[in-house]
Amino acid sequence: MKHLIDIKDFSVEEINDLIKVAKNIIKSPDKYSHKCDGKILATLFFEPSTRTRLSFESAMLRLGGNVLGFSEASSSSVSKGESVADTIHVVGGYSDVIAMRHPKEGAPFVASVKSSVPIINAGDGGHNHPTQTLTDLLTISQEKGRLDNLTIGLCGDLKFGRTVHSLINAMLRYKNIKFVLISPDELKLPEYMIKVLESSGVEYIETNDIEEYMGDLDILYMTRVQKERFFNEQDYIRLKDYYILNLDKLKNAKKDLCIMHPLPRVNEISTDVDDDPRAAYFRQAEYGVYIRMALIMYMLGVK
Ligand code: NCD
User: Fold this and answer.
1) How remote is the CA of residue 264 from the centroid of ligand 1, in Å?
2) Is 36 within 8 Å of 62 (Cβ atoms)?
3) Which ligand 1 atom is nearest residue 52's CA?
4) What's the CA-to-centroid distance between 31 and ligand 1, angstroms?
């Protein structure tokens, strides 16, 4: 039985296969509409979500399966003090695969140790978000036609942004990738992720100026300042509008730049960018359904 806790749990071949299946689903969705008949996906969300939870549910419904679950810890027995391990033990008897989001780093891993069904990490604290990364990889592959030879700007909250951490871990395994890490000093990539970059030998630059390397970027991945991970409201207020991407800031950008954002957006991309063909973030949200369809099939061993 396979779990997906960290994007590195999957080999590059496995990821490339998932992308291939997702592209087939985009072309011929009808061929997949009964692939998971009779199967049940549980979505256990101990932390808020719109896209991740609903795209998982949409994915399972589009495969002919069923879904159950909860969207906040307060509506589950966790609010009575039940442990994650006990919740998972029980829900494993009600479902065939579990997608779980939790504010504590490592919680999905702990869940997977005791689980009788595959566990998918749908985001654990400021740590990892492997299914957003699969979504991001499908997006890059669709929009750029390749997953190698890319200069990727990661901008915003690189400290707490779990999508950034997982995306770096995934992209490191493709050829000729360069990272431009754009953040205020207080929200720089954590030391343990810098070590990952250093030991891989990949080229990277840190800056706090969003325009400095704009003309070099193939991808600009914007992120929200992760309010819920701040200890101090004042720090959040000071940093939340540090970057606001607008058309003016894009004046030196490549014509085929791909602008991504895992969403939700707060202020970090001005709405005037939305109509620019380079704005890929709403398409990205839609790709999330197709890659999760491919993922659910894979986790359930459905061909
Ligand atoms: C991200 C998350 O939850 O980490 N959103 C998502 O899954 N689409 C990013 C965020 O919340 O800022």
Assistant:
1) 6
2) no
3) 7
4) 30
Under a CB-based contact definition with an 8 Å cutoff, are residues 92 and 98 in contact?
A: yes
- Pick from 144, 55, 69: which is nearest to 100 by CA? 69
In the chain the domains, ranked by start, together with CATH numbers, are 7-128+289-300 (3.40.50.1370), 131-284 (3.40.50.1370)
Is the C-beta atom of 292 inside 6 A of ligand 1? no
Q: Tell me the β-bridge partners of 179.
A: 152, 204
Phi and psi torsions of 163, nearest 5°:
-65, -35
Q: What is the pTM of this model?
A: 0.97
Asked if residue 224 has its Cβ within 6 Å of ligand 1, the reply is yes
- Convert the pLDDT of each residue in 82-122 to its tens digit: 899 999 999 999 999 999 999 999 999 999 998 999 999 99
220-260 per-position pLDDT tens digit: 999 999 999 998 999 999 999 999 999 999 999 999 999 99
